[in-house]
Amino acid sequence: MGMPAPEPPVTTIEQLLALPDDRLRHELLDGVHVVSPAPRPRHQIALGKLWSHLLEVTRTRLDVYVFSSPADIVLGPKTLVQPDLFVVRRTPGKRLERWADVGVPLLAMEILSSTTALRDRGAKRRIYQRAGVAEYWIVDVDARLIERWRPEDTRPEIVDEALEWTLPGGASGRLDVRRLFLEVWEE
Predict the structure, then answer these.
(1) pLDDT tens-digit profile of 3-50?
(2) Which of 77, 81, 103, 128 is most buried, with most CB under 10 Å away?
(3) Which domains does the chain show, CATH number per domain?
(4) CB contact at 8 A, 84 and 68
(5) How far apart are CA 14 and CA 23, in angstroms?
(6) What's the start-to-end Cα distance of the chain, in Å?
(7) What is the C-alpha to C-alpha distance for residues 150 and 132, in angstroms, rounded to an integer?
(8) pTM greater than the 0.85 cutoff
């Protein structure tokens, strides 16, 4: 009995978007198809705390939206990413109907896991920097720190106490990183 023919590789955004929903996170990183399993609970706790922070400091602003994935953010002809959490420009009076309309995020955030750390610090970092994402935060829950990258950076800023941030357009805030991780670890 023969083996079934292998599925052709996914190398385009169109092929990626045509995949059946398997409840996993599919991304195309410079033409390379990657799949991530569902995150662990601690990851989701951190995501919730960070989302709450962003919503609180942007709640009166009409110029930004705060989202979490799943979301199909296209950053190039062979690049579709799904940041854990991200902030995009909002054009007042214009409805946002499709992910294709969000453009380049102002802030993208990835919360590290053992299966994504290499990719988040490598390929995805380079993609976000190349695309002009103003702030890219790599949240390391185990090390209790945030690596902050900007487009021109060759090394991250390591933040483990307070993170002062300002996005293009003026959205800004102060994140107590030490307190964030105390809450994430329920200490």
Answers:
(1) 554 577 899 999 999 999 888 899 999 999 999 988 999 999 999 999
(2) 128
(3) 39-184 (3.90.1570.10)
(4) yes
(5) 18
(6) 57
(7) 8
(8) yes
